[in-house]
Structures are given as C-alpha cells and as structure tokens.
Amino acid sequence: MGCGYRFTLLALCLVGLCVADDAPPVKASAATWADKLKKDLLLNYDRNLRPTQYYNVTNVEVNMEIRHVDIDEDNSIFTVSGWLKMNWQDLRLKWEPSDYGGLRSFYIPSYYLWDPEVNMHSITLETAGSRFAGISDVRVESSGMHHSTHRMSQKIFCEMNFQRWPFDTQHCNMVLGKSVSMHEDRTLKLNGLEQDRKQFRPITDNPAWEVTDILVESYEDPMEEEGHNFEGLQYGLVIKRKVRIFYSTILTPAVIFILMTLTSFWLPPGANEKVLLNCVTATLLCIFLRYFTIHLPLLATRTPLVGRMAYSSSLISVTDEEEWTDELKVGSTARESCSSADEASQGQGADVQHEWIQLTVALERIFFIAYVFIYSVMAACYLN
C-alpha cells in the first residue's frame, strides 16, 4: 500500500513537469524601436571624443532665448534667465529610419553624448564654476543632428551709467564660449552671429526693465591660465528702464521747480515775494535731492542730469539777484549822497536810483534767457 502511494505521487509529479515544459514562455516586456535604436547607436560610442575627424572643426550653432532680466543697481549685477539652445552634427549617430520602424528622431539624456562644454565667462562669484542648470535631453535626428536645450540663470557684472536716470539705458555684455589651448588647432566654432532678434525678446514681462536690442559678435580673450584663450560669442544686451512711474515722481516736480526758478527773474527787484519764493524753492529742492539719495546707488558713476538741474536751481535760489540788487541800491544811495552834496539836487539822485533799478531788471532778463537756454539744452540731452 505504501509503495503504490509513492508510485502514484511520483507519476503525478512527472506529469506536472511535462505540462510545465510544454507551456509557452511569458514575456515580461516588449522592447520598442527606440530601445533598439539607442542600444545600437551607443554601442562602442565614446562621449569623450569629438563627433568629427580630428582635422575638422566642430560647428555648434547657438541660440539664446531670454525669459527674464533684472539689474541689481547697488552691486552693479545683471541677472539673465532663459534657455540656451545648441545644435551640432554627430556623424557617428546616424541611422536609416526604415530599419527602425520609420523612427526619425528620439531623445537621449545628455550625459550619454558628447558635450560642447560651452559655459559663461566673466560671471559673478556666486555662479562661478557653474554651467547650466539641470540635465537636459538631447533630440537626435536620423541625419546625426543634435538639438540640445539648457536652462540658464546667470549673474554678470555690468558697469552702470546713471547720467540719464531715470531714462537711462544700460549696456551689459554676456560672453558665451569655451577655454581653448593656444598650442592646439581650433576644434570648436560657435555660430550665432546671424540669429533672429525675435528670439531675444523676453517672454516674462519685467515691470522695471526691458531688452530693446542685442548685438552679437565674436569674442576672444586671453585667460589668466598661461597658454589658454577664451573663445566664443559676446552678447551685448541693451536694457532700458521703464519710466512710467517716474513721470509723476521725477518729471512733474522737476518742471515745477524750473518754472518756480524762472518766475523769480520776473518779480520786481526788492519785492518780499521774491525772497519768499526763493526760500520755498530751495527747501523743496533739498527734499528733491534727498529723494535722489534714496533711489540712486551711492557709488554710481556720472551724476544724473536731473540731479544737476536740482543742484543748479538750488544755487540760483540761494544766490539770487536780491543780494547784488541791495548792493546796487547801496551804491546808488552813496552816489545820491555825493550828488546831493555836490549839486544839492534830490531829484537827480532819484533819477540815478531809477537807472540802477532798470539795469537790475535788464540783467535779470538776460539771466532769464540764459537759464532758459541752459534748461532747454539739458532737457534735450535728457530726453533724447
């Protein structure tokens, strides 16, 4: 009985094994055409070697799209954020689309492929040593063309010119390239001189600044490291300040101060209203200059023209013609006394005083015309 039971159990096990061998295998996953293409392309591929022959130059087309710009006026730092697009051809990564299900392009992580190693030059210490944020996927076409897009956010030193503040336009340079050895043949060339200017228009609206133009030119500069140059492209960005708010805070008070200063020339010599008007103008101009010290960097180069206007107007107010008008009156009185003693005629002394007053009025009109001309020239230089 025991032997028969064991024999039956052994027979059932053998039957189960035979059925298991006859069952079809189950596939965990099916490989796609992109998987097969990636495996074939990267087989024996070395990302450290250039994509062309050693005697050829690798051409890399560079396009830059600016999304946001900002300027730190106190520290003279220009911040630019956007996308950097680079295109090049790698002849080692070509295929026939018909061999891979009609697949003409697909994406590969950038760390699998050759990198042009393009970076920024003359950046701040905060971003020094860093290139571009994130690891991007590169779109590879069947012809071997590579399309790479990197997110960038760089801070660059920029010399500020506040002479026409708040209508100022700043010129900041951003250099993009690569360090090359002077003893080796040129192996990399950046092409970006014939780019569409529309690609430089910021998409994000900045309430304070706007990019009006960008000039692209070749750049070459010897580095501190002996035997190396930095070659690439220099982007000259022209950034203009938006001045809508300053029309009410700067322009309107400046026009009022000019009118108050010029009005004092038309008041009668010796009038109390003239002294009062000049005192009020001088006080308001001091407050106006204090406003400039709050909104302008203390170490800014070139004093703004609007500040010079306020300063000159304050000098006119505190050194008005009233002072030398009084001196003329004293002189006329002395002449009147001498004349009275010599000629014993009070009427002639009054005539002399009247002549001095007329001379004072004439000089005031001359100064009025001179200051109108000066303010007109300053306004033309300021608004152009």
From TrEMBL:
SUPFAM superfamilies: Neurotransmitter-gated ion-channel transmembrane pore, Nicotinic receptor ligand binding domain-like
UniProt subcellular location: Membrane
Protein name: Neurotransmitter gated ion channel
Main location: membrane
Domain Neurotransmitter-gated ion-channel ligand-binding: 35-243
Topology class, membrane: Multi-pass membrane protein
Gene this chain is encoded by: 6033617
Keywords: Membrane, Transmembrane, Transmembrane helix
Database matches in InterPro entries: Neur_chan_lig-bd (IPR006202), Neur_chan_lig-bd_sf (IPR036734), Neur_channel (IPR006201), Neuro-gated_channel_TM_sf (IPR036719), Neuro_actylchol_rec (IPR038050)
Keyword Isomerase annotated: no
Pfam families for the chain: Neur_chan_LBD (PF02931)
GO MF annotation: an example: transmembrane signaling receptor activity
Organism: Culex quinquefasciatus
GO cellular component terms given for this protein: membrane
